[in-house]
Amino acid sequence: MAFITLHREKLRHNFNFLNSLFRERNIHWGIVSKLLCGNTIYLKEIMELGIMEIHDSRISNLKKLKKINPEVQTVYIKPPSKRNISKIIAFADVSFNTEIYTIKMLSEEAKKQNKTHKIVIMIEMGDLREGVLGEELINFYKEVFSLPNIEISGIGTNLNCLSGVMPTQDKLIQLSLYKQLIEAKFNVEIPFVSGGTSVAIPLLLKNARPMAVNHFRIGEALFFGKDLFTGETIEGMHNDVFKLYAEIIEITEKPNNPTGELGENVAGNTYEINDDTDLSETSLRAILDFGLLDMQPQYLSSTDDSINIIDSSSDMTVIDISNSKSNYKVGDLVSFNLQYMGALYLLNSDYIEKVFE
User: Fold this and answer.
1) Domain ranges of the chain
2) Which residues are catalytic?
3) Which residues lie closer than 8 Å to 256 by C-beta, 6 or more apart?
4) 35, 62, 155, 159: which could form a disulfide with 74 (CB 3.0–4.6 Å)?
5) 47-105 pLDDT per residue, tens
6) Residue 273, pLDDT above cutoff 90
7) Three-state secondary structure readout of 166-179
């Protein structure tokens, strides 16, 4: 059975790196735990880091977090749906919002549950996912800031997740100006400007972050140490907190090209053989015990640079080990480094065991 590992010490190292980075700049931050897909043993590991604010996009995960530690501040990081309002109030201390209709329902439910629910108003800054349009923000704020049992704790934005728009200094300055506009118009204080995600960390490292942006939501940088501007690993961080290990279940020298009439495979792809293809070529192929049901192979890279991933079917993956210096045998494990989406697929699979390293 293939399994994914979380390396405790590397995770703690990355956490301490980020915690120092934010503390030195007087920035509040929370961990985005949605990558962990509600896995209880990994959620407990995150809690043991000492963080007291955790963000997720699944209510069931927030419920688990509250069960582990009722004192942690839980943040629901997408606009709530009508059918989940009561659960949001029950298990999320804070939610991100963009609809007046929804906030009014949150207000009514918070009153029923005798709670004060905090909200962050998300502003559209060009990535075209969730967010109130800037020209509508004043009227939006006017309608919701006096609702009972609702506390507006901040404004925020989401960048890079849908259209790839980067959180440049100019974008974050614009977000800061919205804070000033609201505060001047309504004579209020907006405690938090949540403009920072993992992709904005390079701005911090270059001291280019507008000072008003004082809240970050961090997932990918914690688990992968990645500079999302350059694609490189941030100096001083680990990029291999997670690894996949898969068992070899067959090794055979086989032709490089299929034989017979060709149609679509299980993934809907068709193999093409060119006229100049040497049909006599062979390679030493190994089959691993995971497939498309668990993972998309483009998000993997073998720790053995000489291995090439050929393709995957629903529950098996074929690799070329012809050039490897390792004397692989059936039953051996092959390890892979993961991109963010690769880890997300694996952690969401019930067929991949989750363990510690």
Assistant:
1) 8-224, 242-356
2) 34
3) 281, 282, 283
4) 62
5) 999 999 999 999 999 999 999 999 999 999 999 999 999 999 999 999 999 999 999 99
6) no
7) CCCHHHHHHHHHHH
- pLDDT of amino acid 263: 79
According to DSSP, residue 243 is labeled E
Amino acid letter at 163?
S
DSSP H helical ranges for the chain: 8-24, 40-47, 59-68, 85-91, 100-112, 137-144, 169-186, 201-205, 220-224, 340-347
Fold of 8-224: TIM Barrel (3.20.20)
Question: What are the two backbone dihedrals, phi and then psi, of residue 195, each rounded to the nearest 5 degrees?
Answer: -115, 0
Choose which CATH entry (2.40.37, 1.10.357, 3.40.630, 1.10.3470) describes domain 242-356.
Answer: 2.40.37
- How far apart CA 322 and CA 256 sit, in angstroms, is 11
197 CA to centre of own chain: 10
> What pLDDT score does 275 carry?
60
Q: What is the pTM of this model?
A: 0.94
Q: Note the Cα 32 to chain centre separation in Å.
A: 7
Count of residues in the chain: 357
> At residue 171, does pLDDT exceed 70?
yes
Per the CB < 8 A criterion, the answer to whether 92 and 75 are in contact is yes
- Count of CA atoms in the C-beta half-sphere (13 A) of 92: 29
